[in-house]
## 1
Amino acid sequence: MTHPIRVGVGGWQFDPWRETFYPASLAKKNELKYASRVLTAVEVNATYYSSFKPDTFRKWAEETPEDFIFCLKAHRFSTVRKTREDMRTSIGLFLGQGITALGEQLGPINWQFPATRKFEAAYFDMFLSELPKEKDGLRLRHVLEVRGQGFDTPEFYDLLTKHGASVVYAEDDEFPKLRHEGGDFACARLMQSKSEHPAGYTPSEIARFAKLFEGWSKRQDVFAFFISGAKERNPAAAVALLAKLGRTPPTAAEADALAAAKSKPEPASGAKKAPIKKAPAKKAPAAKRGK
C-alpha cells in the first residue's frame, strides 16, 4: 500500500503568479480556492513572521477541499530559545494561537533553525521533548529544518525517532540533504527551480522527484514543496510533478470553473465537512515582519 504524496508551493499570494499560474479572469480573492484545487498542499510561510487568529485558520479550511493540507512554519522566535522554559513559552504561544481550527487539514509543522545552530544532542533532545504530540484532540506532526553542521549522524536520527518527529530533506546546495526514514511521514523542500524552464525544472528532473517520492511513499506520507529558486515557476513545477505521479487532484475541474466564472463550483469530492468546532486558543503577540 502506498501513502499519500502531497505536492504544493510556499503560500498562494505572489504577484508574478498572476502571469504564470493564475488565470487572468480569476478574482484575487479566489487565489486560495483556485490553488487548493490544482495543488494538494501548501506551506504557509506567513506564520513564521506573524501570529493569526483562529478565525483565519478556520476560513482557510472552509475555502479549500477537505483533503487539502496546510503545513505551517513555526514562528521564527520559537527556534532561537536556549532554556527549556523559554522554549516551552514560545512553542506554546505558536501552538496556542488557534492552528487547530484547521482540523484534519493541519499538516506537519516546520520548525526552522538558523544556520548557526549546530547539532548538540542535549539541546535538540530538550527541544523535541517540548513539542506536544497533540493539541485539542488533534494529532500534531513536527519536522525540523536544520541548516547547520553535524546533523547527518545516527544520534540525531535516533532523537527524531524517539520523539516521533522528522527532518526536512532540502534540495539546495547550501543546506544539508538529510533523510530520516524512521518516522511515518517525510517532508521535502525543493529550492532549485530555474526561470529558463517553463516548469522550473527539466522533465528529467521532475521524473527524478517522482521516482524519489514514490519510493518514500511505500512507507511514509510525503509532503513536497517547491520553494524559493525561480519562485514564479514553482506552481508549474508542482503541477508537473503531480501529473508525473498520476496524482492530479480531481478538483482541478472546479479550478477551471472558478477561472471561467461560469458557475459557483461545487464542494470538493466527498463534500465539505461540517464547520470545524472552534478550538480554544491563546492570543500570540504579533511579530514584526522581516525578510
## 2
Amino acid sequence: MAKLGKRTRAAREAFAGKENLTVEEAVALIKANANAKFDETVEIAMNLGVDTRHADQMVRGVVGLPNGTGKDMRVAVFARGAKADEAKEAGADIVGAEDLMETIQGGTIDFDRCIATPDMMPIVGRLGKVLGPRNLMPNPKVGTVTMDVKAAVEAAKGGEVQFKAEKGGVVHAGVGKASFDEAKLVENVRAFVSAVAKAKPSGAKGAYMKKIALSSTMGPGVTVDVDQAVSE
C-alpha cells in the first residue's frame, strides 16, 4: 500500500467524521485544507434520483454563477459573415465554419465551450460523436445554438456553467476557486444547487436530490446537508 504524504494525511484527519455539513461549514473546511501548489477548483457532485436512460428523466441546464468560476473559458464559435465578426468582437477565442470542423475532426479541441448559429448545425452535427461525449455539443436548450452570439460568448466568458446528469444520475461541476472568499463560494454553490433543483424533470420519482458533496481538486470530499443546501 502506498504511503500517504503529510498533506494528504492531514487533510484526511481534518475531514474525518464530518458529514452532512452546512454549505458554509463545508466551504470553510475545504478552503482550510486546499494546500496544493496551485489554486484548486472547488467542485460539486450531486447524486440525483433519476435514470438518464429515460428521456423524461434527463437533467440538463445552465447557470450563471454570481461570482464566476475563476477559470479562463476558451470559447469556440461556428458562424459565418457578420455573426463571425460579432463572435470575435465579443471575445470568442476560435471562430470558423468548415475549417473549424476539420480542425476538430483532426483531434484538436482547444476550447471549453462551443457555440453555433442555427445555420451551422448541419456542419456541427457531423461532430456529434466527438463533441457529445465531452459535453461540448451546441444545444438550443442551454443557449449555445443561437443567433445572439454576442450574449452567448459573454455569458460563457462571464462564469456561466452548463450541467448534465451523467450515467448514474450524477451532476458534476466546478463552482469557483479555493482562493475565492468563503461568502462568494457559498453563493456560487447555492446558485448551482438551485439551478439543478429547478431543472427537475417531469419523470423524476421519489427523492430527487439524494446526495451533495463538495471537494477541492486535490482534497477529500465532504457531504452537505441537502435540505440546508436547497434552502434560500
## 3
Amino acid sequence: MMIIMGIDPGYALVGFGVVKYEPPRFIPVEYGSITTKASCPFERRLETIFRRTIEIIDKRKPEAIAIEKLFYTNNAKTVIGVAEARGVILLAAQLKGVPIFEYTPLQVKQAVTGYGQALKPQMQEMTRRLLCLKEIPRPDDTADALAIAICHGQNSTVRKPMPQKTYYYQKN
C-alpha cells in the first residue's frame, strides 16, 4: 500500500489528488485545487501555494509526490510563472522529506489509458473509472493531478527515487 500525491502545477490553479494505491486498485483519498486570485500579488500567490501544499502533505502524509514535468508552450510569461509555482511545490515536498517523481504528459497518458496520444476527455474518463468515481473530477487540473498520481502508481515498481550521493573529501 502506498499513498501518492499527484500535482498539476500552475499559479492560478494547482490541481492536487491524493490516492491510496493497493495494487491493482487505486482509492481516492482527497482531491481538489489550490486557487489564487489574479488580483493578489504574485509573491502572495506563491506563498498560498506553498502553505496549502504543506498543509495537504501534513494532513495526508504521502509517501511519494508525482508532478508533471514542465513543458514550454508559446507563452514565455506563463511558463515562467508556472515554473516558479512548481518550484515552491517542490520546495514544500523537499522540506517535508517526500520523494518527488516527475512525469511527462506522454508518460501520464500512456500509464492511464495505454495510449500516449489520448485526448483529454479519454484521460478524464479513464481516471474516473480507475478511481471508481461517479463523475469526472473538476476542474480539469484536479483530474490531471489524479492521473499523475495514478501514473506514479503504475510506475512505482519500476521507478525508485534517485539515491542521495555522499561525497567525502580526503586530504592528501
